[in-house]
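**Fold in tokens:**
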Amino acid sequence: MTDSQTLPGLTGGRSGARDQGMTNTTAPIPSADSAALVTGMAKAARVAQRQLAALPSERRAAALRRAAEALLAATAPVLEANAKDLAAGTARGLSGAMLDRLALDEARLAGIAEAVAAVAALPDPVGQVIDCATRPNGLNLSRIRVPIGVIGIIYESRPNVTADAAALCVRAGNAALLRGGSEAVHSNRAIHAALAEGLVAGGVPAEAVQLVPSQDRACVGAMLTASGLIDMIVPRGGKSLVARVQADARVPVLAHLDGINHTYVHAAAEPAMAEAIALNAKLRRTGICGSMETLLIDAAYPAGASLVAALADAGCEVRGDGRAQALDPRIIPASANDWDSEYLDAILSVAVVDGLEDALAHIARHSSAHTDAIVTSDEAVAEQFLAQVDSAIVMHNASSQFADGGEFGLGAEIGIATGRLHARGPVALEGLTTYKWQVRGQGQTRP
């Protein structure tokens, strides 16, 4: 998931705090019916996943290539469906940014198809031997990567997620149960129909990639409580969606809630580099989860005023503590909430800190464990920062906007995870697998 195609990281991009995708625009169906619908789809997905996982790697890759071709061939109906969503979104008063995330044209659709084909070309993690050992009694033990099983993806706004999530799941041998947002309902259905045509032609069971046909919110609740039927939930969207998923799920969740990312400009930072990184980290794309939200400036850094001025001159609203305000008269006072805010806008909080330990303490208090960076020419300080900041992604002399699976060479991502279990950072094919132990003996019995 590159940020040109999606928004953050598990997260790659975000739709902001508004829970657009959870809006119900269709006649609701009873919760019992929603539960029955999801249960039936999940059971069918389980059967299909076993068949999919048994396919050779090249068969799965070939099916994805056919899906990419089918998506291109369906350009006209997909764009026609997208036009319906855009018209409905305009009538509903969606913001320009939301409409831009929703909009497809021939170039964007071609990019989505190319991303599916690119996933087909990625190395297959399934069957990879993680490690192996031979015990003193002669038993040979191996840990082997295997698919997770049935993965539910609940997402908003971006119709490209339908293709991204489906492709990643299929390549890693997982079945996907997709529930897209109401604002992209026609686009999602058209994209799914094209993908399914190509996948089935390539030998993948149709039930391996299913799109929940109802926009009733009860279906989301049914997915979140489908323990034993769905193995993992991946939410992709705004803060309220992710918060609901994390609060209500009875199924393991792979997600991040906020991208409160820091850049610490150390006393030994090279000024031109610090300015370039800060401008890029904040303003390249303000609405993605890798965007810098707080700038920490070392009190001993000699060019703090010019650094803040460059940001303000570029149109960024700067909010700061008392010492930061002394750097530039345009800085407005920061409130206590600013240090814990994901703005997703051209707004930045700035604090002046007394050295590395002060910066580490600020980050420990306020970071969301997504991405934090240091700018310095002091290698020892950089290594201490990299070792002690407990975030999924920690950077030295680089913009936090690189927090993206495509930029990490993963080809695509299903999101960015900030938890400490299973997977952290950009989650791609490897993150969509688990492992099992294989034990080979020659008749050993335990004494």
